[in-house]
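Schema walk-through. Below, the input block comes first and the output block second. Nothing else is stored per chain. Lengths vary across the set, and this one has 308 residues.
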Amino acid sequence: MIIRPHLHWFRMLLAWRGSVLPQLLPRLSLIFCIAILAVAAHDHLLPISLNLNTTAPFSLIGIALAVFLGFRNNASYDRWWEARKLWGQLLNDTRSLIRQVLTLPNNPLPPEEIKAFTAALSALPHALRHQLRKSDPAEDLGARLPTPLFDRVMASRYKPATLLLWLGEWVQRQARAGAIDPMTVLAFDRNLNGLSDVIGGCERIMSTPLPFAYSVMIHRTVYFFCASLPFGLVDSIGIFTPVFAVFVAYTFMAHEAIASQLEEPFGTDDNDLALNMLSASIEDATRDLLGEPALDLPTPEAEDYLRD
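--- output ---
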């Protein structure tokens, strides 16, 4: 994801990184060439009329297409926002568990037990991020977990769930040792269940894309509309057809491209969630509650933009 500070309205007009324009340039160039061909055919090449010189059919198709694109964008944004809420819940449950470890036991826990618990809890968002992006978590987990737990997690297929299992085992060990009472175990279990809900919610979003037929229908309609639009504009606006055709094509194609990025919120496209930053922020929150030094988190004010 591209993370950048709020831009002045004029700089927003010229923003390049983080927009979908770079990936649309080849397609817009094709529409521009089609529009040039439509102008040439209208003025010089074809003595007969193509009967596309009325804009009424294009107005009707454009309105219907805008409605479908609106539904597609809303559905994609709902997935993106739900994913962001799940990662917000991950932060809240992590803070609650750290607070419980520090305040609820009958007697202060040994520092090594607190360190082991918080290490596993800090590693969980990194493990979840790598699972969602299907990347290798060895470097991030190796820097945070003790060797026995690291080996156990790396040997599993679902690494966040394995970390969650270990956290539950830690709570049971403390209960058997008499450090926490049964009511406190239930309090821990509620927050551990919250973490399980987060993991399952993220897996559900990742494994259930929008219906393919719906996306294909909109994709085909957008490109057919944009390719035929110059022939409907040429009779009324003449040599300005390429300019208006490209602008309209940019509007429709950009909406489809943005929806495509938001549909998969855990990827590495410019408009996906900044999971690297979110993982580091959750880890930094645990360090703050433990009184440890803050992580050096980059901010968008330090640069024109940040690539997560």
